[in-house]
## 1
Amino acid sequence: FIYVTARINSLDEITRNKSSEIDGGLWDRAFQLSKLADILNEKGIRHELEVIDYNAFGIGMPSTLQAANSEKLDVQDLNLRELLKTHTELISDEEFKTHLDKFNAARKDLFKASLEYNKCANTYNTYISHFPGSFMAMFHKKNSKNLFGYYFRELDEQENIL
């Protein structure tokens, strides 16, 4: 009883921690996008970037919402790449380049965190789907975890400016 309960709680905690890494990655990516949009606005460059309110991101988002926000950010990533094709001078702007590097790094971190989360969620779900884990999960009212269901777009190497 104690071992199975401790194992379920441990797997649940690991999965929550991995989920919070996704939340942090989403926040960082949205924050960097807002900084990039601010620079574009300061320079008077018209853009079609939809800046997502990074203050709306919080820890504990369900994985379905995390996936939807990842999709929104990837769409804006593509818009930004299109803009950079016509405004190549932005690459030489040190402040813009710094935020662009952080924006791109946050995408890689987010991708890595999503893979780690899905691995942990699968382990948790497998454990609570078999006896005695299934019995203890039912006793403690633990449910299976949804997977992070967004598949990151492949970015064309030609579009991958950095």
Note: The mean pLDDT is 83.
## 2
Amino acid sequence: MPSFSELSSSAEERWQPEEGGEYTTVVVECRVGETSNEYPKIGLWLEVITGEDSGERFWDNTYFSANGRANNMAFAKLAAANPKMDTAYWDKDPDEVEIERALMGSKMKVRTTYDENDRDPSRPWLRCTYIPLDDS
């Protein structure tokens, strides 16, 4: 069995989306959790399904907080992932399983940018904007 040091030395760098990239993706994993401030967060493992980066995957989180404007943006982002996740959907106060079920397999375009990370400047923060796919 290989040692951890052997595995670590041969590990490949993780793929990162490009700054200003736009990717058509599908949600392959969804995790609903809680922030350190006890607000909900939703993490999506996204797989690129078209173009030269097809098959690559990256993680994106959507956070909620005490900031009403930021929460409005978070709800709009999730509605872009699944248009059924509108105000009426959230008014029913779905549980974690229902949220995960609604997002799993959702397809959308994702536009990526990066912000400075004050804690670790070598690892900028990935910021994703979800864009609904045109059904026409």
Note: The chain has a mean pLDDT of 93.
## 3
Amino acid sequence: MGLGAESVLDGVVHPGLHAALGRFYPTVAEIQSATVVRRPNGELVETWATVLVVSGNLAKPQQASGEARQESQTRVTAERVLNIAGWYPQIEVGQRAYIENEAWNITAVTSDSLGGSTQLDLERVEH
């Protein structure tokens, strides 16, 4: 007896809630990966291509942004976080999120233990 098995549990969630999910994840983000291309003169140029489009909730992090110094590395703490419904193992640090005509570096990717949501820590691209 479980969800999707014509059980009483199927009626626990109101059908209209699925239609309302867009209000909880109103921000559309393009996840982009860099490709390095060599021009005829030998110059290396980085170009970005969209590999995934997701809907999420863009928010300020609970802690202030800055740097977290650790023994082996210095990690930038997030200026913004993007919460996404679902598990996205293809999103990696080093990619960027393009949101509302702004580019954001992805500095950390965190998924919950059930694979139901993903959080991206973001820092604004300044160049």
Note: DSSP finds one helix and eight strands in the chain.
## 4
Amino acid sequence: MTLIESLYAQGVRALREPRAAGADIIALGIPREALAPALFAVVAISVILNTASEAIAPSPFVIITPFQMAILLTVMMVVFSFAIAKTGQYVGGLGSFHDALLLMIFLQVMFLPAVALQLVLALAVPGIAALLMLVVMIYLTWVHVNFIAALHGFTSLGRAFGVLLMAVVVTFIVLMFVAPLLVTPTGVLSDV
């Protein structure tokens, strides 16, 4: 079985048994050198889907360029993965930043088909598209909590959920300082 086939199989398994799939993804031993290209590919696809979504239903909020969005998504995923690794270690977990980033990328890949489906549904039935995204976000939160439990070797999903909440707070604080450096209300890259 090739690496791609293994990853696909783990993606399908993660829908039913996320904790076991998370542990198996880590056990694949994907080299650190593969993470940066995988991260950039996932960010690029996410930006393309978001740009298409903005074309269909423009946001009334701050508009940012695709380049700015790519930078913010990259920073967010790296900071979030780092926060998951470090806060988990703080409460007795064993996970590393490398493995946390691997699981974050994997989770994002799992999320992309739902985003593409939501984009198609937004054209035909916007209400169902919004409901789909709510259901997907709740489900992926559950998968993510299980991935964190697998990452850190937690027996309790409560502890993993606590790590997720702490990581969200840390990421939000970092983005409060980083986002204004990149984005202005008009969406123009600042002079920093």
Note: The helical segments are 3-16, 18-27, 35-56, 66-90, 97-124, 126-152, 157-182.
